[in-house]
Design brief:
The structure is a single chain. It is built from nine helices and five strands. It is an alpha/beta fold. It has two domains: about 90 residues, no CATH class; about 100 residues, 2-Layer Sandwich (Nucleotidyltransferase, domain 5). A hairpin with a 5-residue loop joins strand 2 and strand 3. Helix 5 crosses helix 6. The two termini are about 30 Å apart.
Length: about 240
Amino acid sequence: MNGDNSDKYSISELCRLFDVTREGYYEYVKSLDKPCKHAGHFHPKKQNRLFGDPGLAEIKAIIKEDEFNDKYGRERLTPALNLKGIKVSESTVYRVCNQFGLLQRKRKPKGLTKADKAARRDADLLNGNFASEKPNEKLIGDITQLPTADGTLYIAGVYDCFDSECIGLAMDDNMRDELTQDALKMASKRYNIKGATFHSDFGSQYTSNEFKSLAKKLKITQSMSLAKLSCYGNRCRKISVAL
């Protein structure tokens, strides 16, 4: 698409190869001549890193890596691209995905966990700062559900803010309190998480005496979002990535 092989391949052939429409390609070419009038404009140099190879191909490769990656939005695609050496911002990824129809559909957040009003809530120690400069420093826990042919599958995960890796996982056909404990136990067996801060919502699975006892035993400090129960209250928006 950059003209190096223009004597061998036609624009149509290259567009088919990279699964790009000809209209989209020519719109991109025309945009390179447009000046950047303000900070919010799509800068040509940033475009070039994603619209052509390897950027756009890498985005599609990430989405195809797993059947559930089609739900990836800019907040997950951006660090994934950064790990592959393509340094771009969320806004750039958003515009490229929007241009080529790769954006996930907006979903209304709905929390699964229910608060125990009588339980003691821990303070929000992260206060929205999920950046981490080293592994096993800041961890995030949450529960999600997936519909299956045999019924609903509930999944509890423990994620490292350093690189968004899932370091602990537990699954069952119900949201029992042990689900979150099993996920944290797996994380402690795989990694040295002693001294880490574990952030979650204030659902009963995380405020139970059993979970608090486990966290104390593993020498982990609990932190809780004090906002209304929602998956957005404890999501990792910004991730520090070491290349």
